[in-house]
């Protein structure tokens, strides 16, 4: 009995172990994997619905499909990889997620399922109503003018700014607004001002109270202003602006000097006059002006009469005045009337500040010649004339006083004020400066100077400056410069004579005049004609064209002459040529020929010719001499 009980117990224990082993194996086996891979179709209509074919893996008979947002669908199990689900008609159009699963697991299709509404039957296409084309443009806001009150704004105080807003655009501004965003200055009260509609080319005025914060130093600061507006289409535009506001800091300020009056003595000035200019300076600033220095800044109008060009003045207190006198000399101005003289002002204050300013005063200027001298070079001449390189000559200048006053201590300088413009001319026996003690109004004086022309000077017209300096009756020194022109021509060097001796001529018997012209200079002479004349002889063939003669060459003429009476006959040889200015000139030379009365031959005597004709070889020899420059 006991053995049987033991066997039963062993059998129970073995059965229990087998069951436990089966349970462990079942627990270790993985559950099937549920997944969706696709659906057909992916789009259905709301009106008809339809059947979906769902593909994936891990499907069981308990797997159902669901449209998220609608509900479960009637699902048919096909196999572990396919399901069929029916979407009923009437599902609202939209996009739905498709989900499949059972009580323990679910999966969602990666791509959404689309339910669309039924397509309505096409009807007539409505004709679109054309919208009006908007006109191009925009409102443009700008600050045309502004002012602040009080004009001198002190830190810690309030001030009022008045702004004029102007629409310069091509559209009206809607909901136009001006605001003060703050910054350096603090707005008091409302900071925004609604202007409403601002038409084209219209303005609106806005007033705002502002406060200057404490601690600001004196200077100019920017007040920020914002302008904005819409157009009728709803477009919005912003226009930020800044306005400059001058601030006076606490304990700050500056001096401000102004010229309140000016007086010249004498009242009417003439060029070169010495005068005194008295100025009344007033301090209209907030501090005492120190280190005051005043001077004339227009150097072309007036220069100091002595010392420096500036004058120092004593400190000028607030709302106080001081008198300053400047000794000046009026320049050689040519314009008459009321002329402006610029005055420079430099000053400081006790805190080390420095200030500079320029202001103008008026001077009454007259350029009339009623009582002051005016000198002109009325004329000049040279002896000899014309001039040639190497010539010594005398230059006589006529100086006339055409003004209304006497000229005193006149100095006349050839070559300009420094004497550097003499050119090829040099003074002889004295310097280039001449002195005349006085020259009355309307009088003329002749000034003579000996000069020499440089031997290497080229031909031409030379300008010779003449500087004039003189005093008027008030002792004012005047200066002027004028020009004269001197012509230098190259004088030809010609040798004129008979190239063979002329035998004694007999009255009534023709004889030859063998005239020769030789250029003994180094430069060409543009000779045109050689001419022979005489008052005592009848000359035939007495003119011949020669042409230009180089240095060392010559030209000849053989004229025939007949004397009517005995004695010494003068033969005038005239050489016509063009000078360096292409002007015709002449060189003359007088030769003499002795003429005898004819002798009566004794009865029966045979006449013997007085001279023999020139032989052939003599003519050849004269021709060769001409070619060699030794005379023809």
Q: What's the CATH topology label of the largest domain?
A: Immunoglobulin-like
Radius of gyration: 63 Å
DSSP summary: helix tally: 2
Average of the residue pLDDT scores: 84
CATH hierarchy class name of the largest domain: Mainly Beta
Tally of individual domains: 5
Assign the CATH superfamily of the largest domain.
Answer: Immunoglobulins
* Secondary structure category: mainly beta
Query: Which range does the strand content fall in?
Result: over 45%
Low-confidence stretches: 21-31, 608-612
Q: Which percent range fits the helix content? A: under 10%
Q: Strands of the largest sheet, in order across it?
A: 13-20-19-15-17
How would you sum up the global shape?
Answer: elongated
Tell me the span between the first and last alpha carbons: 195 Å
Largest sheet: 5 strands, mixed
CATH architecture of the largest domain: Sandwich
Write the layout of secondary structure elements.
Layout: H1 2-28, E1 35-40, E2 43-45, E3 50-57, E4 64-67, E5 71-72, E6 74-79, E7 82-87, E8 94-96, E9 98-101, E10 106-108, E11 113-116, E12 141-149, E13 153-154, E14 158-167, E15 173-179, E16 186-188, E17 192-198, E18 203-211, E19 219-230, E20 236-248, E21 257-265, E22 268-269, E23 274-283, E24 290-296, E25 302-304, E26 310-313, E27 321-330, E28 337-348, E29 354-365, E30 375-383, E31 392-401, E32 407-414, E33 425-427, E34 433-439, E35 444-453, E36 460-471, E37 477-488, E38 494-498, E39 505-506, E40 511-519, E41 526-533, E42 537-540, E43 543-545, E44 554-563, E45 567-578, E46 584-596, H2 616-627
Parallel strand pairs: 2-11, 13-20, 22-29, 39-46
Antiparallel strand pairs: 1-3, 3-7, 4-5, 4-9, 6-7, 8-11, 9-10, 12-14, 14-18, 15-17, 15-19, 16-18, 19-20, 21-23, 23-27, 24-26, 24-28, 25-27, 28-29, 30-31, 31-35, 32-34, 32-36, 33-35, 36-37, 38-40, 40-44, 41-43, 41-45, 42-44, 45-46
